[in-house]
Amino acid sequence: MDRRSGILLHVSSLPSEYGVGDFGEDAYRFIDRLSENGFSVWQILPFGPHGSGNSPYQAYSAYAGDVLFISPGELVKWKLLDKSDISNHLEFDENSVNYEMVTPWKESLIQKCWNNYRANPENFEQLKDEFNFFQQEHDWWLNDYTLYSVCKNKFNNESWEKWPVGIKKRQSDYINKIHLENSDLILFEKFKQFLFFRQWFRLKEYAHHKGIKIFGDLPLYVSYDSADVWSNQSLFHLDESGKPEIVGGVPPDYFSDDGQLWGNPVFNWKKMKHDEYHWWIARIYFNLHLFDLVRIDHFRGLESFWAIPASAETAKTGSWQKANGFELLKILKSRMPDLPVVAEDLGEITQEVEFLRDYFNLPGMKVLQFAFSSDAKNIHLPHNYSTNNVVYTGTHDNDTLRGWWSSLPKADKSTVKSYCSLTNRKSIPEQLIEMAWSSVAKMAIVPMQDILHSGEETRMNTPGTIEHNWQWRYNKSKERKRQWEFMKELNEKYNRFNG
After folding, report:
1. Is 175 within the bounds of a domain?
2. What is the DSSP secondary-structure string of 248-277?
3. Is 75 within 8 Å of 109 (Cβ atoms)?
């Protein structure tokens, strides 16, 4: 069995002079760093077009890409832009993403690309052929998404349930009329997606050349205001007007006394069963085309899900309802015996969820920050791991190791010190990272913030809150050669070295 290691760093958090991480030079540089230091996995968060609160888990599409990640530098190389178009850009913060500033700037650049492409077709023959092929290959989701995107702009960015009834209900006469009246705009939206995926697959190919696997993230639910719900309304629990009857979330837990009220519409599993879960299977296959392995976020929702009345103000009033995850996974496993899926099995997990995960031999997750708040039976303590685990020092929903340690109660700190036999020779983050690397878990993942020894101000997300999330960026000036050397030593010492 290969023992692997990786770094969790979302695309938006990559360094870039253009205000947000992208698929340009710094992404290639990061892959080089991974390879040079013995890593074999790069884990990212969902990269669909960001929606509410800039969250990657509330995207406007389960298939489309976020155009923010299109690299201006790569567009210059493709001669769609001149260097002068990007040389005098706005002054962006190197440490965080200002979505309100960078979004319109990126959109204006892509508009220039489109104008250049349309004005000088003789200069882009290869690009034209690739674009035509892309449209044919992806029409099964691309047509719905681009139509949704154009309608959203046309109707003042309102959610689809507020659109005119004929379009909301997707009546053919209205849909055809929108297509005819907005054909150029729809084609432009397709062009944006073409640029995104052309850059992504080139970056992925480079990662493979360097021995790096891409570890993607698939949210269980999709956003209500999305092309997916609008174009598949019967597959969700919606009322006659198109509004959710029940929504997803989780009951009170470690993260929140009120639970988490996500607001996503939940699946109508009975309807999905009628066509043998075609929607879900297409989604899994698409993600395994984008990535080498995929984490299913909120995996327990495939066994049973917390159904909350849409009118509820908190998640406390929900109830558990059964899902059809076993039937879905059985179909997938019959087609892909080595199903490259990781189960996000954190929180209150029942025996039924454990059975679902183990029956299909899916790796589960362990998080060191959860390991020291109870007794020796705590499943997140390394002595309780199996090889079929992925261990994290923390996830995107946790504080950084430094932030976590500084806020830890004295009693818990004593537990950590006793268990780890902590010494002054290494920092707290280094000693906990080494504990993860030395475990039997077949994969060990560390957020980039922990390698950099960053504090709580670099936390990616605080569940149950809206402000200041998803903004952190990795500033190259903050990294030190010793930090990479330490990780290389651990990869060699604990047989996780890629090379």
Report:
1. no
2. EEE-S-SS-TT-EEEEEEPB-HHHHHHTTT
3. yes
Buried b (16+ CB within 10 A) or exposed e, 145-165: bbbbbbbbeeeeeebbbebee
Domain that holds residue 477: 4-67+200-493
Q: How far apart are CA 484 and CA 482, in angstroms?
A: 5
Determine, yes or no, domain membership for 118.
no
CA–CA dist 426, 490 (Å, integer): 13
Give me the CATH number covering residue 441. 3.20.20.80
277, part of any domain: yes
What are the DSSP calls for 118-144, one per residue? HH-GGG-HHHHHHHHHHHHHTHHHHHH
The pLDDT assigned to 129 comes to 96
| Number of domains present in the structure of the chain | 1
pLDDT of amino acid 466: 84
What would the pLDDT profile of 339-366 be if each residue is shown by its tens digit? Answer: 999 999 998 899 999 999 999 999 999 9
- CA contacts within 13 A on the Cβ side of 392: 26
- Per cent of the chain over pLDDT 90 is 87
Nearest to 6 by CA among 209, 212, 206: 212
Q: Would you call 471 exposed, middle or buried from its count of C-beta atoms within 10 A (0-12, 13-18, 19+)?
A: buried
From the list 355, 353, 360, the residue with the least C-alpha distance to 328 is: 360
Q: How far apart are CA 99 and CA 172, in angstroms?
A: 36
What residues of the chain score a pLDDT lower than 50? none
Structure tokens at 213: 């696997």
Max intra-chain CA distance, the chain: 72
**DSSP-derived 3-state class of residue 40:** coil
pLDDT at 73 (0 to 100): 96
Copy the structure tokens of residue 474.
């990795």
The residues that are catalytic are 297, 344, 397
Residues 141, 63: contact at Cβ < 8 Å? Answer: yes
Q: Report pLDDT digits (tens) over 401-446.
A: 999 999 999 988 888 988 887 666 778 889 999 999 999 999 999 9
pLDDT at 422: 65
pLDDT for residue 255 = 65
Query: Within a domain: residue 183?
Result: no
> Which has the closest alpha carbon to 59: 229, 204, 179, 194?
229
